[in-house]
Every structure is written in C-alpha cells, then in structure tokens.
C-alpha cells in the first residue's frame, strides 16, 4: 500500500483540517502530509472562519460536522457567505439523512464518512479534480 | 522478537479488540514518523481517559442527563473508530442507544431500566478500554 500512495507535493495543494477531536486531527493531518499536501489544523468552525478572516486560503477544507462553538454546517454556510470558494469536503460519522442534506446544502462539494483513510481521501481529491488516477 | 510482535498483533485482531482501521493507521507510519501509531494511541488513551472521567462525573450526579452523556459518548466513539478500537466502539454504540431510548422514555420505571443498562454498558466499556490499553502497551513495548 505504502508504495502506491501518490505524492502530490508538486501540485502545491493546501488544506485545512477542521475537527474538534484530537485523534482525528492527528490522523487527518498525517493523511494529508503523506500525500504531500501542506495543511493546517483548527478545532472548530469558528476557528476555521477566523483563519480565513486573517487572510489564509486553502484549496481544500476537510470539515467535521459535529463541533462545539460553531459546527460544520454553520461554518460551511459562513465561509460561503464570505465568498470562500475553496472545495469543502464534509467528513462525518454516520449521520441522519436530513443532517447530511443540510450539510450538503450549506455548501459542501463532497462528503465522506469517518474514519478517513488514504483511499477515501484520494476519492475526495479525485472527485474535486485535484487528482487523476493513473 | 518479530514473531512475538506479529503474534501479539494478530491476537488483538482475532480477539476483536482491533479492526482494519488500525491497519490504515499503520499505513501512515513511515521513516519520517516511525512512532506515529504509538503517538496516536497515546493521544487516544489520554483523550478517552478525560471522557471517561467526564462521564463518571455526569453519572455520579444522580440524575441522568442523556443528552450530555450521549455527547461525551459520541466523542468517545469517534476516537475509538478512528484508531480501530472495535470492542470499545461497540460498547459506545450500545451506550448511545440506551441514551437515545432513555431520552425518549416517558415512564420513569422504564427510564430507570435504561439508566441501569447505561451503567452496565459503561462498566463493560471501561473494562474493554483498560484491556486494550494494556495489550497495546505490550505490543508497542515488544515492537521496540
């Protein structure tokens, strides 16, 4: 498996991990690192909004749904209202149909069920046109 | 020694303590981060100890706040799923189900039954969590 992992460092992609869970933060950060994607980590939706207000921008945002202070749905809506056009992928544990609908309608480009794996992340990148399978 | 490590690891899977998500975690370990799996496991046990303490405090208060308990358990389940802690994840799922049923329960007698189920499940969860911790510590020690 390790030999098949593509290195996307040349594409100079950047990503933001938005998750309140420390284990998930560590894993998602490492997943992105492994693919050569420079990334930052924040703990909730409000911090995701704040980091964009400070002028940072990312190609991809991995947005958890359930977070304190500001959840993923609220944060996604807020970022879109701010004119942020980054690709946003919702990353959730199994949620109800209506919750998923609400999350998508907030402005997601894709979603995946947790836990994220390399193959799920590649699927996101492929769907959002950041990566082409060879 | 390597055979011993392999045997310990295999038994963790055979006995259902770990699932394939742990393999995904191991795939992320490389020369740049040779102790990544152990670091994540350490983070998990530190975080889950905090959650266990929060849940214990919530249960000691006497009146069951199912919403609060479910919220803690949601976090616990999330971490357990990410690390591949299969048995712990199962207990979290059961606990959340009892919270969901208990929250909807109108009759106090049945609600008390749900509270008992929550307590029993939490006891089992702590047992599985402690066993996993011990076994993973053995595994990481043997891997050095």
Write structural notes for this entry.
The complex is a heterodimer of chains A (134) and B (144). Chain A is α/β, with parallel strands linked by helices. Chain A has one domain: 3-Layer(aba) Sandwich (Rossmann fold), CATH 3.40.50.2300. Helix content of chain A is 38%, strand content 19%. Chain A has a 5-stranded parallel sheet. In chain A, helix 2 packs parallel to helix 3 (72-81). The model of chain A has no long low-confidence stretch (mean pLDDT 91). Chain B has 144 residues and is mostly helical. Helix content of chain B is 83%, strand content 0%. Chain B has one domain: Up-down Bundle (Four Helix Bundle (Hemerythrin (Met), subunit A)). The model of chain B has no long low-confidence stretch (mean pLDDT 88). Chain B is built from 6 helices and no strands. The interface between A and B is medium-sized, with 18 and 21 residues.
Secondary structure layout plus pairing:
The complex is a heterodimer of chains A (134) and B (144).
Chain A: E1 14-18, H1 22-34, E2 38-42, H2 45-53, E3 60-64, H3 72-81, E4 87-92, H4 97-105, E5 110-113, H5 118-127
Helix pairs in contact in A: 2-3
Chain B: H1 2-14, H2 20-27, H3 36-60, H4 66-83, H5 86-104, H6 108-143
Give the helix tally of chain B.
Answer: 6
> In CATH terms, what is the architecture of chain A?
3-Layer(aba) Sandwich
Radius of gyration of chain A: 14 Å
Which range does the strand content of chain A fall in?
15-25%
By CATH reckoning, the class of chain B would read Mainly Alpha
Number of domains of chain A: 1
- Shape of chain B from CA axes? elongated
CATH top level assignment of chain A? Alpha Beta
Taking Cα atoms only, what radius of gyration of chain B do you get, to the nearest Å? Answer: 17 Å
What is the distance, rounded to the nearest whole angstrom, between the alpha carbons of the first and last residues of chain B? 10 Å
Q: Name the pair of protein chains with the most residues at their interface, and give those residue counts.
A: A-B, 18 and 21 residues
Query: What do the pLDDT scores of chain B average to?
Result: 88
Tell me the domain tally of chain B. 1
Give the spatial strand order of the biggest sheet of chain A: 2-1-3-4-5
Percentage of residues assigned to helices of chain B: over 70%
Which class do the helix and strand fractions of chain A yield?
alpha/beta
Structural class by secondary-structure content of chain B:
mainly alpha
Domain HPt (chain B): 33-139
Subcellular location (chain B): Cytoplasm, Cytosol; Nucleus
GO molecular function, one term (chain B): histidine phosphotransfer kinase activity
Modified residues (Phosphohistidine) (chain B): 74
